[in-house]
Structures are given as structure tokens and as C-alpha cells.
Amino acid sequence: MTFNGNWKIDRNDNYEKFMEKMGINMVKRKLAAHDNLKITIEQTGDKFLVKESSNFRTVDIDFTLGVTFEYSLADGTELTGAWTMEGDVLKGVFTRKDNGKQLITTRVLEGDELVQSYNYEGVDAKRIFKRG
């Protein structure tokens, strides 16, 4: 299973409620819902290079499966955690540095779409990407 490729945001499901639960203010939530996010994923064995490009920032995320690293969300929320593979699912378990609460993110290929799911304090959301 390869996640390699260029992915462009197509639609969101419950994303605003998720951002609200994360403590992101209304103005940033409205902007983020229309961020035109593009993700480029390059996987070589257990190593990943993910480039996230949106209207607000471009960031390169370099990680190895199972190795803890630090990451900042677009709103500045700092996290620490790691990605692992569970079958065909890329799963990230991250802890917020500010409050110690857990954010779980998964990426899975469903047909021609990359589905990125989030769970934070019982709120689930999805961002669905198309190749592009």
C-alpha cells in the first residue's frame, strides 16, 4: 500500500466541529475550512516526507514510522507523537504539549481518495483528498 503522490483537498466532514473542540477560534476555523490544502507524500520504506501546502503555510514533515517527533499544527498547536502502520492504515497518535490531550489521526486509501480522519476528545472528523 502506497500513499505516494500529490493529493488535493476535495471535501470535509465535521471538520469545523473538530477544530472547535481543539480550541481553534471561529475566524481561524472559517479560514481553515477553505485552506485549499495540498499534500505530497513520498514514502521510502519506513521513511516518509510529507509536504503540506495551503493558503496559510507550507511545511515539510519528515518522519520514520514508530519514531516520536514534534509537529506544529497550522494554528500553532504543538504536538509530539509518532506514525505507525496498522495494516493498510497510517495511524498517528499525538499528544498536545499545552494540555496533554491526545489527537489521533489516520490516513487510508479508499478507492481513488485519501481519507484523513481525526479524533479529539470524542469528536470525529474527516478530510477527503483526490489525486491532483
UniProtKB/TrEMBL annotation:
Record's keyword terms, sorted: Retinol-binding, Transport, Vitamin A
Domain of life: Eukaryota
A molecular-function term among this protein's GO annotations: retinal binding
Cytosolic fatty-acid binding proteins domain segment(s): 5-22
A Pfam family reported for this protein in Swiss-Prot or TrEMBL: Lipocalin
Signal found in the keyword field: no
Family the entry assigns: Belongs to the calycin superfamily. Fatty-acid binding protein (FABP) family.
PANTHER family: FATTY ACID BINDING PROTEIN
Role of this protein: Cytosolic CRABPs may regulate the access of retinoic acid to the nuclear retinoic acid receptors.
Protein name: Cellular retinoic acid-binding protein 1
Organism expressing this protein natively: Menidia menidia (Atlantic silverside)
